[in-house]
Amino acid sequence: MPVAIITGASKGLGRALTEALAARGWDLVLDARTVEVLKETAAALTGHGIQVTALPGDVTDPVHRSELVAAAWRLGGVDLLVNNASALGAEPLVRLEGLSLDGLRRALEVNVVAALGLVQEALPLLRASEAGTVITVSSDAAAEAYETWGGYGASKAALDHLAAVLGEEEPRLRVWAVDPGDMATDLYAAAVPEDGDPRPEPASVVPAFLRLLDERPASGRYGAPSLLEGR
After folding, report:
1. DSSP conformation class of 17
2. What is the DSSP string of 46-62?
3. What single DSSP character describes residue 193?
4. This prediction's pTM
5. Cβ contacts of 135 within 8 Å, gap of 6 or more
6. 90 in helix, strand or coil?
7. CA-CA distances (angstroms) from residue 115 to 90, 194, 203?
8. Catalytic residue among 146, 152, 188, 222
9. Which of 28, 92, 153, 192 would you call most buried, defined as having the most Cβ atoms within 10 angstroms of its Cβ?
């Protein structure tokens, strides 16, 4: 069975991806910070007859990242790494003039440094896979200037660039930065709690990620809405 590591897997897009991959027979290594929610997520996948390793922890911890990769190795390797865990830097979001520098450091540490650290840990196993793939979950805030989204957007823009360079440096891999578009997630609710407008559920954009895995286009940045329109 193919093996995937998914960070931030206990809810939102991460959980939706785990459910879709489990239905396809993938073995999974799941990360999240909230122990009980992660356990519940893993338990919900047992009906698919797959192997699931749930490891609660913080992706900024290098020991935790090593544990994730070691768990995948025990399942057979790493065919897919999804860097989905994210930090906003401020909850709710604030203008740059009021953004705590410690908050910005946290966003960069989670969204960029930890993501690269996990890639570095997993690279030997990704290279050994016949279809080694890295997906970094991006945001439209990485490419567009939205008031109060400066710190988070800057971290995602940096992640996009790392993904682009990794795709050049590792031509045998597929490296995709994917902007999922607007979603109803806890992250968005924490970012803009006063915004009560309805948004699509994370599961609605999962087919875009599955299309990438099925068609394996060139490494690059992709928007889920465009992938869904082209189905």
Report:
1. H
2. GGG---EEEEES-TT-H
3. T
4. 0.96
5. 80, 81, 82, 83, 84, 176, 177, 178, 209, 212
6. coil
7. 19, 30, 23
8. 152
9. 28
> pLDDT at position 230, please?
65
Distance between CA atoms of residues 80 and 82, nearest Å: 6
Where the chain has pLDDT below 70, the residues are 230-231
Backbone phi, psi, residue 210, to 5°: -65, -35
133 by DSSP, 3-state: which? strand
Asked if 152 is an active-site residue, the reply is yes
What is the pLDDT at residue 46? 86
Q: How far apart are CA 11 and CA 4, in angstroms?
A: 16
Residue 44 has a pLDDT of 94
- pLDDT on residue 231: 56
Distance CA 124, CA 196 (A): 44
The amino acid present at 47, given as its one-letter code, is G
Rg of the Cα atoms in the chain: 17
Q: In this structure, which amino acid lies at residue 180?
A: P
Query: What is the pLDDT, as a whole number, of residue 88?
Result: 97
